[in-house]
Amino acid sequence: MTVAAVIVAGGSGLRAGGERPKQYQLIGGRPVIWWTCRAFLEHPAVSHVQAVIGEGHEAMFAAATEGLDLILPVIGGQTRQESCRIGIEAVARHEPSKVLIHDAARPFVSASLIEEVIGWLDRFQAVVPGMPVAETLKFAPGGIVSRTVDRSSIWAAQTPQGFHYAEILAAYRKAEAERTQGLTDDASVAEHAGIEISMIPGQIENRKLTTADDIVIADRDMMGRQLQNLPDIRVGQGIDIHPFEPGEFVTLCGVNIPYAQRLKGHSDADAALHALTDAILGTIGEGDIGTHFPPSDPQWKGAASRIFLAKAMELLEARRGLIANIDITILAEAPKIAPHVAAMKACLSPLLHLDPSRIAIKATTMEKLGAIGRKEGIMAFATVTVRLP
Ligand code: MG
User: Helix count (H) and strand count (E) of the chain?
Assistant: First the structure.
């Protein structure tokens, strides 16, 4: 039996504000859609995860889901109904027997709910999780109450909604052929095709993120959940120094700062990233940069130091650890570092999967004392806290 999951992420998500659609905003250091896709990828019963994305979101999606074993996304249509149909058609070649259709904006979907929906499909034609409605419902056309609605049979529908693949495919094709529009969820399409849909209890945390406030609260919740399961607290430190040589800019924390010198080294000589990488490796006892990238190896000549950082993150993530905060101090008589700190944080945040509020980058001069004080080079210190299971 093959179960496919279709993740619907075509919306522009403008109600949540921000520079990008809500499904690409960060919660717990990762884009919303990363959490959503991973929930399905990690579920042993789900064999394929197919995302349906908005036109022009290709690069954003690729960056947001880097490292996840997803099949190539497809581009959605003008409406949710159209996007779902495209996603369902796209998984046909994997010949799934069941399909789950899920909103990208519900990142808190649990393994147990996915399990329930798949399991109940053995008994039912279609399965929709939902929550009973607690508030009293008023029917008020034009804002004037005409009656109170009996809420005893009212459910607020969630996703994932589960279907037998051939049936929902046929239902979508039927709606398409009849040009029926405006069906807002998959169950409506199934209803329209006469499929019997069974409601099962949803989960309160499986809420849909809609507003800017939802994103803020979800960020806190997701970080809290992460930390809760990671009781092993480790601290690592790293120190690095590179001398100057003639050049046009120095690279620190991945940012090029115009200057009459550059830092001399085998790679791009980003002393701050080297100190940070060593600090992360230090938390898990994995040696230092030299262990993984020997300076004798010509392939690292002129390399961007983010490669080293990525390796340290890969080793940390292989242990299911995460960074809780970093604190970097750069010792430099010149150039001035402070004007570049915001750009440095913006560069590090996605590499570390860490909110900028958990990143500190400070700089100090040496009051003209010693080699750094004589402007012979730049030194950096990094301290990192990580959490491990
Ligand atoms: Mg170095």
Answer: 12, 19
Q: DSSP state, 120? A: H
Does the bond joining 335 to the residue before it have cis omega, within 30 degrees of 0? yes
pLDDT, residue 185, reads 73
pTM: 0.81
Instruction: Compute the distance between CA of residue 253 and CA of residue 255 in angstroms, rounded to an integer.
Output: 6
For residues 7-11, give the mean pLDDT.
Answer: 89
The model's confidence at residue 321, banded by pLDDT at 50, 70 and 90, is very high
- 324 CA to middle of ligand 1, Å? 24
Cα 240 to middle of ligand 1, angstroms: 5
Ligand 1: centre distance to CA 387 (Å): 25
Range of the domain at 22: 3-227
Pick the more confident residue, 11 or 318.
318
The pair phi, psi for residue 384, each rounded to 5°, is -130, 140
Evaluated on CA atoms 166, 94, 77, 188, the torsion sign reads positive
Q: How far apart are CA 3 and CA 94, in angstroms?
A: 9
| Residue 266 Cα to ligand 1 middle (Å) | 8
Tell whether 218 and 329 lie within a shared domain: no
pLDDT above 90 coverage of the chain, percent: 77
As a whole number, the mean pLDDT across the chain is 93
Q: Are residues 220 and 363 both part of a single domain?
A: no
CA of 305 to the centre of ligand 1 (A): 9
